[in-house]
Amino acid sequence: MYRITLSAYLALLCLSFPLVSQAQESPIKVKVFIAAMFEIGANAGDKAGEFQFWYERYFSNSQAIAVKGALNPVYCNKNGICGSVLGMGKVGSAASMQAIVLNAQFDMSQSYFIISGVGGTPPAKGTIGDVNWATWVLDYDLGHRWKPEEGLQGKPTFMPRKGYESIRRYQLNPALVKWAMALSQGQSLKDSPAAQTYRQRYPQAAARRLPKVTSGTHMTGDTFFHGPGLSQEAQYIAQSYQADDYMITEMEAAAIAQVLNRTVGVQRMVSLRGAVNFDQGNPNETTLEHLDPAPGQTAGGFAETVENIVIVGGALVDHIVKHWDLWQQNIPALTQR
């Protein structure tokens, strides 16, 4: 009879039944990563936040993948589409994005990134329910500010601070933005009676029209700035940075762009925002009244806007994945549509 030591027996078992560890598994090759900032409750079945319609469209049959350092798990489907809720604000969203990009469970060397969420818009440029593709993302906070009465009357109260030139503005890839705009044409956007009624409080033609897809600069700030004065300041910053007109106020895109720029690059990043409020009140209300509306006086249209975001963004996601042979290495020429 042959004798076998315990160590030899265990070695034979390992040969017969190889141990599977996370480190030995091949990383998921991510074609498109969708980043939302918040969800109101569950990912499905209740009032939708920024992620629910994405989840229902792409991830309802996906397993949650825990990532150390990220606020929420990542979901990936069999087609190489992944997504997660990063958290609100520059610090929270950037921390989650960096944890996910650097995690060994994912190969994001060829990924496209859709930074998706809601925001505000100036009534002279947009309206409730609009969906806007960023041409630039700018940091609203990096600079010097002072109270208007402590400066020159009628002059800007902001000055860029030297030393932040490389992180305060990012121009997103024009070729990718053109693709996004082209694929957005013909998409039917949702609207609501409440939003239609609310728009009529504003005299501007852009504020009163029906929702559509637009493009322009997204202004990233941890502060929810409101009022015509700070809206004008945002436009002044956009002009100072030689960017396109300010169209959307939001809280995360410039910070996420900095993370991607340091890791995989920003050439495959887009920022997509739906307008759920105006950045200022109408002529018959003060800024404080606009910030704290009475019951029943809110803008309306939130549910329709978060759905519009996915209707518009999903067209780009689906096209990239369907034609991955063209998109994997480089952004194809728009004539290859």
Layout of secondary structure:
Elements: H1 6-16, E1 28-29, E2 32-36, H2 52-59, E3 64-65, E4 74-76, E5 81-85, H3 90-101, E6 106-107, E7 112-121, E8 131-139, E9 143-145, E10 158-160, E11 169-171, H4 174-184, H5 193-199, H6 205-208, E12 213-220, H7 228-240, E13 246-250, H8 253-263, E14 269-278, H9 287-291, H10 302-322, H11 324-327
Parallel strand pairs: 1-6, 2-5, 2-7, 7-14, 8-12, 12-13
Antiparallel strand pairs: 3-4, 4-5, 8-11, 8-14, 9-10
For this structure, what is the CATH homologous superfamily?
Nucleoside phosphorylase domain
How much strand? 15-25%
Structural class: alpha/beta
Q: Any idea of the CATH class?
A: Alpha Beta
In CATH, the topology is named: Rossmann fold
- Low-confidence region ranges: 1-24
Distance between the termini: 72 Å
Count of separate structural domains: 1
* Bulk shape: globular
Number of helices: 11
Helix content: 25-40%
Radius of gyration, in Å, reads: 23 Å
InterPro entries: Nucleoside_phosphorylase_sf, Pur_nuclsid_perm
Keywords: Signal
Protein name: Purine nucleoside permease
GO molecular function: catalytic activity
Textual characterization of the structure:
The protein has 337 residues and is an alpha/beta fold. The protein has one domain: Rossmann fold (3-Layer(aba) Sandwich). The chain contains eleven helices and 14 strands. It has helices spanning 6-16, 52-59, 90-101, 174-184, 193-199, 205-208, 228-240, 253-263, 287-291, 302-322, 324-327, and strands at residues 28-29, 32-36, 64-65, 74-76, 81-85, 106-107, 112-121, 131-139, 143-145, 158-160, 169-171, 213-220, 246-250, 269-278. Strands 2, 3, 4, 5, 7, 8, 11, 12, 13 and 14 form a ten-stranded mixed β-sheet that branches. Strands 1-6 form a two-stranded parallel ribbon. Helix 3 packs parallel to helix 8 (253-263) and helix 4 (174-184) crosses helix 10 (302-322). The longest helix is centred in the C-terminal third of the chain and has 21 residues, at 302-322. Mean pLDDT is 92; it is low at 1-24.
